[in-house]
Write a structure and sequence with these properties.
single chain, 260 residues, 70% helix, mainly alpha
């Protein structure tokens, strides 16, 4: 099954990644690589679900729908991909970004209560009280937040023109950020977000496009892009090493570092 999963990942890197090295590091740092060795059914579902991105980029929504349905047959967590079929049709504007920020803030304030409702009345009630051991869900949250801001900044012109590929890519970042908020309540949300981490690893390197960076930052684009690139490489390695030290789940409570 690992050969199947890696084969799809290699195909998607070849097809969509602008930087195979950075995509691979993000794949490892965000937890997908380590999870590949333990979660067989979900790993297969994630690989099939990754093809959803391919079909959506090709504007073949029915094929994307069926790929998600097939992924769900292997693991129900693939249900989390269904929103991509709809949100990609919504244009991102300043007002919607402000509203999304308000929703994120509200969710942060009441994440425990919201997470309890989601977990207790779903098939994931088993994971209530189970938390991630190893890695850093706080680090991943901050990484996703920075990714969202950077991607919006670099691709704002394309977002305003409603270019479908960029629009879908941005929604992947925003949805992943929203799910990550709940990851400190139960390990189930960390596992759900693995479905979004794969396309993020593919998409994010495209934000280092030299033309867009020059338009956005002028003569400083070279310095800023290299500083961010080095920071992402270092952060991915750090997160990956943390996963190796204690990957798994346990009963230890976890809070974001700003809540300690």
């Amino acid at each position: 099954y690992s050969a199947f999963c890696i084969s799809i990942w290699v195909f998607m890197i070849w097809k969509y990644s602008k930087d195979a090295f950075l995509s691979t590091l993000l794949f490892m740092g965000l937890g997908n690589y380590v999870f590949l060795f333990s979660g067989m059914r979900q790993s297969i579902a994630m690989s099939i679900g990754l093809l959803t991105i391919h079909w959506l980029f090709c504007k073949k929504n029915w094929k994307a729908f069926f790929s998600i349905c097939i992924a769900v047959l292997f693991h129900t967590s693939a249900i989390i991909l269904f929103p991509l079929l709809f949100v990609s049709q919504f244009r991102i504007t300043k007002l919607r970004l402000i509203l999304f920020g308000v929703v994120i803030g509200f969710t942060l304030l009441f994440r425990i209560q919201l997470a309890q409702l989601i977990v207790r009345y779903s098939v994931y009630s088993y994971y209530e009280g189970h938390y991630e051991i190893g890695g850093s869900i706080s680090g991943v949250f901050l990484l996703l937040f920075c990714f969202c801001i950077w991607f919006i900044l670099i691709n704002w012109k394309d977002l305003r023109q409603q270019k479908s590929v960029i629009l879908l890519s941005q929604w992947v970042f925003l949805l992943a950020l929203g799910i990550q908020i709940f990851s400190s309540y139960a390990y189930a949300f960390t596992r759900l977000n693995l479905h979004y981490f794969q396309p993020i690893a593919l998409i994010f390197p495209s934000s280092f496009d030299k033309v867009k960076l020059r338009d956005c930052f002028g003569n400083y684009y070279w310095m800023l892009s290299h500083v961010l690139y080095i920071a992402i490489v270092a952060g991915s390695i750090y997160l990956y090493l943390g996963q190796l030290k204690g990957a798994g789940v346990g009963m230890n409570n976890y809070r974001f570092f700003w809540e300690l």
